[in-house]
């Protein structure tokens, strides 16, 4: 299997490329609109054809490139069924296996950051989206988020996976790329060290985070599989513009 971790700097989003060497097929998990051309160039370099784009949830901080990639190369758009979006070609559900050639991902429903959030597990790796981050977790104060649900998703589901499972998050803002279940169980300041549910709720209730600057445009756009809003303010236009250069993570 071919695996690449790609980075989009505007929203600090990781996109994950998984390729089947036998069939030449590839999928992208959480692709981001400004880097759709970059992603296709990476696939071409690897000799792969994009077959699917797969979302962990409806994002609030960027526009997915799923629709754009479908228009460009005919890839199929895959969303969690819980997202209730009408635009995807395929849907995934908890405990299903999403199979592409020799690549098989186990679908794990992990609500809390949002009510539709899913993680994807394969071999010794776990793509945790915005649920479990390195030394952190996703916020729980919008899109039907719930601190109680996120605590259960992580403590009762993700933290029960083998300790040596590698954690690949959907974002990181300090240029970190990978963690492990053992590391997050031991030192995650919000959830590690046996922290209790009341302690976690208190932490999440007192984060005092600003209202997401892009959410009012990103959520409706992503419910349409990545339709860029026509009324974006000038300061946010880069979220839908293609970048001529975007570093590969």
Automatic annotation (TrEMBL):
Superkingdom to which the source organism belongs: Bacteria
GO-annotated molecular function: hydrolase activity; metal ion binding; sulfur dioxygenase activity
Assigned keywords, A-Z: Hydrolase, Metal-binding
Domain Metallo-beta-lactamase: 12-171
Coiled-coil stretches: none
Classification via InterPro entries: Metallo-B-lactamas, Mito_Persulfide_Diox, POD-like_MBL-fold, RibonucZ/Hydroxyglut_hydro
Claim: Metal-binding is one of the keywords in the record: yes
A GO biological process held by the record: glutathione metabolic process
Name of this chain's protein: MBL fold metallo-hydrolase
UniProt lineage: Bacteria, Pseudomonadati, Pseudomonadota, Gammaproteobacteria, Cellvibrionales
